[in-house]
Amino acid sequence: MQRRLVAVAAVLAACAAAVPGAEARTDNRSKPVYFIHGFANGSDSNCNMWTDMTGKFRDWGHSGTFYKMKYYHNDSNCNADLDHHGSHSTHYGNGHTGGSHTEDTDIRHLGYHLAWHIYDHHSRGGGYVDVVAHSMGGLITRYAIAQVQRGHSAFPPSIRVEDAVTLGTPHGGARFADACAINCNTQVQQMKMGSSFLVWLQDNAWNPQGYGGTDWTTMGSDDDNAVAADRAAATDSDRDPVNKYMGSCHKTWYTTKNDIEHSDFLHDMQTTTTAEAYVRHCSGGFTFYTGSYWPVRRSDLAVTYGSQ
């Protein structure tokens, strides 16, 4: 309990101010945005999954480059990949085929590649990016930022991620992973509740911060068929104000009224404030709204404004 209370205090401090000596928040839609997909579940991912979201982001004024990231060996329709940033033999470098990755690649290795991609393309020159990650993609992002912050020797010297949004990410474990008893691949094993990887994240990446500060938003849904709402929103099952699983500043917990399943986070694009959700911003308890933003619009606001 003491550790959790200390962690909550750290969250509030991070939300209240940027890292000393760093630039102030930009609060605009001009930064590059990285879109990180989740677990492939036996078949590689098609980055066209991001078409609805990126289209609406453009409609709403986002002008920076969109990086729809490839990391599995047969991912399709992606415009950027992790394979050429860092070494395949470094930092849990297992599970490769054809010069790329499989479901047996350690999530920590993917985080290592992601950190180097962001650094090589942006952080090295002082540029900031935002990240929108679905499912396992949020764990990759969280690990990448945490290890840079911790000064791990295999990771780049800095990473500048101003906003990070996770959608249906199993910060507390995934239902489908918990159900796997035998012949589970590496990534499924790491996403089981109580795995050594998730425990490491809770203990060492509670609210990881890039240079200048990183504003985290986590979203979960009661209708998510892959990740329970509390594990994705990263809070207690009874919506206790004290964080659990991760100390994200902003949390949204969608109710069953909205019928938001695991993939719907990328496609529910309504601009009306008609969603039903519990929302928390950095301190205090959750507020229940019958007129909340839908996931794509909330993601847009979360990567644009520090208050959302």
Count of folded domains: 1
Tell me roughly what share of residues is in helical segments. 25-40%
Strand order of the largest sheet: 3-2-1-6-7-8-9-10-11
Alpha carbon gyration radius: 18 Å
The SSE order reads HEHEEEEHEHEHHHEHEEEH
In whole angstroms, the N-to-C terminal distance is: 28 Å
What CATH first level would be assigned? Alpha Beta
**Helices and strands: which structural class?**
alpha/beta
Strand content: 15-25%
For the biggest sheet, the summary is: 9 strands, mixed
Shape field = globular
Q: In terms of per-residue confidence, which ranges show pLDDT below 50 for 5 or more consecutive residues?
A: 1-21
SSE layout and pairing:
Elements: H1 2-16, E1 33-36, H2 51-59, E2 66-70, E3 80-81, E4 96-97, E5 100-101, H3 107-121, E6 129-134, H4 136-149, E7 161-167, H5 175-178, H6 186-190, H7 196-204, E8 215-221, H8 229-233, E9 250-254, E10 275-281, E11 287-292, H9 295-302
Parallel strand pairs: 1-2, 1-6, 2-3, 6-7, 7-8, 8-9
Antiparallel strand pairs: 4-5, 9-10, 10-11
Helix pairs in contact: 3-4
